[in-house]
Design a protein that fits this description.
It is a single chain. The chain has helices at 56-71, 78-106, 122-135, 189-195, 221-230, 251-267, 285-297, 326-335, 355-362, 374-378, 394-408, 412-428, 432-443, and strands at residues 15-17, 44-46, 110-114, 143-148, 158-159, 162-163, 182-186, 205-206, 238-241, 274-277, 304-306, 315-316, 322-323, 339-342, 366-369, 384-387. With 448 residues, the protein is an alpha/beta fold. A hairpin with a 5-residue loop joins strand 12 (315-316) and strand 13 (322-323). Helix 6 packs parallel to helix 7 (285-297), helix 6 (251-267) packs across helix 11 and helix 9 (355-362) crosses helix 12 (412-428). It is globular, with a radius of gyration of 23 Å.
Length: 448
């Protein structure tokens, strides 16, 4: 997309990345070095460094203590706050040294810090601010782009009845704008409005997600091999659930709706679809157990495939087993006359929700539960079946099956509906803001 505008090897490969596993003890099966076989593409070099020299349980306890204290900062007295600051500083220093060395080793020009305004690891964000200020003082080329998909007020995630993040920034949370080398972007106008209320002079620009380019719809050998290895039948449509298996993503609702879809297809003597869930069952084991139990309870466990995470690039592992990326899975969905299910189980977490967008660019229908920002992002999408009551999924399932069949058969009205949805989504997810931001990053110095 950007080659013609940014030629001459603007981007040095491989892209070095730290995916944050060492500071996310809530991802227990990936903490602190990630999964054993990440399946990362050749253009990415992922760090597995754990900067803090503590035993795993001690590191987990320290990070969890800080995150919990930050979430309830308003209830801390002066002595408790001082204790939190001491713990924050003890963690921040090793990470500051790590970032400083990492930037120098790879001669980093710009860092894209994704969702690091949130308080998952306040000491690490603080360390990033300090290391960046040292490397890119005022007037220097380079810096940190904070690109946030979620912010405090709009990401109301709870664990065991307790809010994970404070509803707004507090004394412990570093914000973009503390240094001259910062840029700040958020993915939606709603998040930009929230960011405007934060106590920082730096304004957040709206830079939406860039949707994948699907290219040719023709299937190739890897698609056939993947289906064979996964036990997927070419005459059964694929329904995609393009989310993590995480408590707020509502995968259990998708499974329940799929059970209705299966019953309807059997009644109509239609091919029964198969359900592909993108996320890993290892990310949130208690919730994953709930999802698997739901599949068994609905008697659809043999029709549901958990993909254990979707890689950035399609590849074969050491055992020659294919792992397809998002684009290839969408191509399979389109080719088989499938659909997308996007069913958050809470209304106040998603800031965009990309499931309906992925369906639109693939020109397949989508079923979606109600969530707060849906209409702000997508408007009146005719190709989306809205699920307004999750206790009554039958009507929505009937509507989705009708759309799938008519779309697969080439019904002119439905095909036109899908094309209109695609055009609207491509306008909403205009890549121009990214182009403009990249021009600024490449051609201008950090602001004074």
């Amino acid at each position: 997309m950007l080659e013609a505008e940014f030629p001459n090897n603007t981007l040095a490969l491989p892209v070095v990345a730290d995916l944050g596993f060492s500071w996310r003890p809530d991802k227990k099966n990936f903490f602190p070095r990630g999964c054993e076989d990440g399946g990362y593409p050749e253009w990415m070099s992922v760090s597995t460094v754990v900067p803090l020299d503590l035993a795993r349980d001690e590191l987990e306890d320290a990070l969890t203590t800080v995150r919990g204290a930050v979430a309830r900062a308003d209830s801390l007295d002066e002595s408790e706050s001082a204790d939190v600051w001491r713990l924050v500083e003890s963690i921040a220093k090793p990470y500051e040294d790590y970032f400083t060395e990492w930037f120098e080793e790879h001669d980093v020009d710009w860092v894209c810090a994704v969702n690091m305004t949130l308080s998952d690891a306040v000491p690490v964000t603080l360390a990033l601010h300090r290391a960046a200020a040292r490397r890119w003082p005022a007037g220097a080329r380079g810096g940190v782009l904070f690109w946030d998909h979620d912010l405090f007020g709009s990401y109301a995630v709870f664990e065991e009845g307790t809010r994970v993040y404070p509803p707004e920034p507090n004394q412990f949370t570093p914000l973009p704008g503390s240094g001259p080398c910062h840029r700040w972007a958020v993915v939606s106008p709603g998040l930009a409005l929230e960011a405007a209320e934060y106590p920082t002079e730096l304004s957040a620009m709206t830079v939406p997600n860039v949707l994948p380019a699907l290219g040719s719809w023709e299937l190739e050998g890897r698609h056939e091999a993947f289906c064979e290895q996964r036990g997927l039948s070419s005459d059964r449509p694929l329904l995609l659930v393009p989310v993590r298996v995480f408590q707020v993503k509502g995968v259990e609702i998708s499974v329940r709706m799929f059970a209705e879809i299966k019953r309807i297809c059997e009644t109509r003597s239609l091919p029964v679809p198969q359900l592909l869930v993108f996320g890993s069952l290892d990310e949130d084991p208690p919730y994953a157990e709930e999802v698997v139990h739901t599949a068994r309870q609905m008697n659809v466990q043999d029709d549901v495939v958990f993909l254990d995470g979707v890689p950035l690039s399609s590849h074969q592992d050491a055992g020659l087993r294919w792992h397809l990326d998002e684009v290839d899975l969408l191509r399979l969905c389109r080719a088989g006359g499938g659909a997308v299910l996007f069913t958050p189980n809470t209304t106040d977490v998603e800031s965009v929700g990309l499931g309906p967008a992925l369906a639109a660019i693939s020109e397949v229908p989508c079923a979606v539960t109600d969530y707060a920002c849906f209409e702000d992002i997508y408007g009146a999408r005719s190709g989306c079946v809205r699920i307004t009551n999750t206790e009554e999924l039958t009507t929505a399932a009937e509507r989705l099956v009708d759309l799938m069949v008519r779309n697969s058969e080439g019904d002119p009205l439905v095909r036109e509906m899908m094309k209109r949805d695609k055009e609207q989504v491509l306008r909403s997810f205009d890549p121009q803001p990214w182009r403009q931001l990249l021009r600024e990053i490449i051609h201008t110095a950090a602001p004074h």
